[in-house]
Q: What sequence folds into this?
């Protein structure tokens, strides 16, 4: 693996084709096919038979599965296609805080001796839910689908002058209703009455759609396993971090500083956002449907995945984590990546490190970067961790 421009361009990128985002707009139930509209005679609005294609007790909303399947094929066939997050690009221009990597003594020797950092597979994390999707929507699938169906006419009416960005055939169905609303603004009440008429059969098969959600979550979680992650922290004097990640003070902490002149991938470290629970793929079902019909589909896919990748629960807030996420390309399997020697600028030695380990690690650090600053950790009279340069 290289540590220069190519790796940097991939770091922080989410290689997801919008085709595999669940509930593409073409899969939303719209009874436009049951509306007859004559553009010449604008008063000619009538409702035909219910759109049985959406109501039959066969698998409903088939386009959902088609979009997931298409996305999987496109990922397999186009591994170089990636959506680079705007936040990642912005991160290149913003100054990062001091960042540190904790290592046990063995990890320190491997890192310094080989000139590589280990990048973890998400399934190896100590937080089993990290980098996973637990749900599609904030609410239950049934509640989300009911909410979307009920609000659908109003959403279309509010966006009557917005060109739809969804795929066919949904795009054409939306355009039909937009023409209806432009010609007859009062048609909204007629359509809403028919849409929500008591006794209407559901426009979706709940059991089937629940399984679609389960399958998509399984697919996305598998997709996220095809990334490698380097986790660092803003805290070099954290008792808990020294205990958990540096072998109970027998290891080290290394400061990482990106080399600006060499277009370092380390410029793409991003902060983790801490939340009470894992985020759903879509925060709000109505924002979802509005975006699915009229939004920037690439931006929506990127934002949804960024939120999953850079979120953890509050139980981990003490870690003050930044992370670098690199997608694997087709056929790749690796867990270490090189760094520029000058990018490890400071070495902090644990309080309980053995003298033999200390001597060996200092020698390896100076051999890797002769300019590295070396510090010994100790506790002051108030039992607070501080670092003395040696």
A:
């Amino acid at each position: 693996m290289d540590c220069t421009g190519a790796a940097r361009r991939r770091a922080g990128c989410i290689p997801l084709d919008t085709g595999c985002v669940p509930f593409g707009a073409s899969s939303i139930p719209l009874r436009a096919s049951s509306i007859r509209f004559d553009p010449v005679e604008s008063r000619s609005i009538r409702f035909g038979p219910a759109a049985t294609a959406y109501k039959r007790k066969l698998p409903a909303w088939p386009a959902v599965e088609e979009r997931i399947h298409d996305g999987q094929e496109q990922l397999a066939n186009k591994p170089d296609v990636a959506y680079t997050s705007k936040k990642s690009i912005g991160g290149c221009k913003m100054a990062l805080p001091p960042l540190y990597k904790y290592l046990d003594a063995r990890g320190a020797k491997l890192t310094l001796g080989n000139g590589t950092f280990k990048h973890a597979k998400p399934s190896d994390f100590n937080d089993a839910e990290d980098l996973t999707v637990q749900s599609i929507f904030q609410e239950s699938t049934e509640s989300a689908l009911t909410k979307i169906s009920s609000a659908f006419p109003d959403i279309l009416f509010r966006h009557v002058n917005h060109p739809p960005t969804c795929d066919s055939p949904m795009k054409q169905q939306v355009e039909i209703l937009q023409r209806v609303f432009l010609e007859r603004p009062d048609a909204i009440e007629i359509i809403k009455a028919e849409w929500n008429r008591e006794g209407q059969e559901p426009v979706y098969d709940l059991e089937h759609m629940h399984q679609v959600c389960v399958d998509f979550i399984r697919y996305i979680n598998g997709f996220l396993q095809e990334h490698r992650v380097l986790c660092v922290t803003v805290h070099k004097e954290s008792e808990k971090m020294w205990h958990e990640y540096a072998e109970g003070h027998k290891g080290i902490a290394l400061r990482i500083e990106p080399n600006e002149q060499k277009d370092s991938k380390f410029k793409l470290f991003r902060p983790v956002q801490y939340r009470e629970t894992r985020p759903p793929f879509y925060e709000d079902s109505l924002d979802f449907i509005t975006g699915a019909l009229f939004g920037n589909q690439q931006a929506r896919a990127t934002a949804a995945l960024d939120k999953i990748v850079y979120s953890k629960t509050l139980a981990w807030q003490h870690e003050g984590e930044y992370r670098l996420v690199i997608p694997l390309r087709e056929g790749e399997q690796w867990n270490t990546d090189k760094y520029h020697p000058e990018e490890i600028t400071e070495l902090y030695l644990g309080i309980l490190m053995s003298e033999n380990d200390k001597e060996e690690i200092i020698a390896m650090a100076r051999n890797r970067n002769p300019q590295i600053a070396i510090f010994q950790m100790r506790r002051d009279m108030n039992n607070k961790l501080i670092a003395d340069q040696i």
Remarks:
- The radius of gyration is 27 Å.
- The chain has one domain: 5-389.
- The mean pLDDT is 79.
